[in-house]
What we know:
This is Iron-sulfur cluster carrier protein. It is a single chain. The chain has two domains: 5-93, GMP Synthetase, Chain A, domain 3 (2-Layer Sandwich); 106-357, P-loop containing nucleotide triphosphate hydrolases (Rossmann fold). Helices cover 36% and strands 20% of the residues. The chain is built from 13 helices and 15 strands. It is globular.
Amino acid sequence: MAITREQVLEALKVVNDPELHKSIVELDMVKDIQIDGGHVTVTVNLTVPGCPLKHRFQQDVEAALGKVPGVERVTVQFGAMTDEERAAVAAKVRGGEPHGEARKSTMALASKTTIIGVASGKGGVGKSTTTVNLAVALKKLGYSVGIIDADIYGFSIPRMMGNMSRPQALDDQMLLPVWAHDIPFISAGSLVNEDQAIIWRGPMLGKMIEQFLLNVQWGKLDYLLIDLPPGTGDVALSVAQMLPNTDLVLVTTPQAAAAQVASRVGSMAAKTNQRILGVIENMAYFLCDQCEKKHFIFGKGGGQALAANLGCEVIAEIPLTADVRLGSDVGDPIVADKEDHPAAQAYLQAARKLAELSPPKVWTDELKVL
């Protein structure tokens, strides 16, 4: 029996846009179907040219059509939507809300996604490096994860993730996040050149964070990590107000001075009803290549003292190693491809503990255990 166009469309209904989480048939992304015996050629119009998830579309389309009786070969071609087509897609994603109305609130987002802020008392302790590696570790455990770089003045997530691209807009309300390592993220660094200074006062900072939360199409995430700026300034307060009762992880070094400064963030969290999940002690020790002994270059016990003061625990001690630094510089987090490295194992340990202390709110797939 000959393959029909209707059979192809029916099979493609199970293929979802990875960012928009709706069927490519429902979103009118299937623009052409050619059937030549057992050879089916499908043209999919992507929301933006050069979509970083093109390979996912191809795999999913091939898998779906491979189940249709009689299909022997599948060719997937790609085009790009016009501005009008993207606007129509945006309207469908908004669920029919009138153009210009808010699509959702921060509370609605928090009700579906487990949001964890990664905070520190001062800069230079490795907070952003920790955020990126925690995200990759959670992804390796089978969770869907996104990152908001809320460190507006000191943004670094795009470089650490290895993608300096600009986000694409579906319409004048909705942005698509940038992707790297199969993780969506957004940052002020995704909107300006890396060497460009952002010179804003407090209210503007809070407004940008609100836009990152509400106007970026995050889709269905298990976890959204927020890389907070160091200290207890405007952004940290804005996030606490927009996302009450969310969880925090504190990053410190073993140095007593760094741990003491970080305790102020814990004090603020107590006043804003945010829960401290635990402390990650970064640069905890240096593991010598020659003697394999731990050398406590920045002292010892700062993380433990901070955790005891805040009534939580140290969930990981990350060793000081050039591999972590190099991975951050070139956009290749150490957890991504060096899982056996002691630092990668420490990040994976932290991710498992976070999933235990603050589990995802909606979870349907089986957890992948490493």
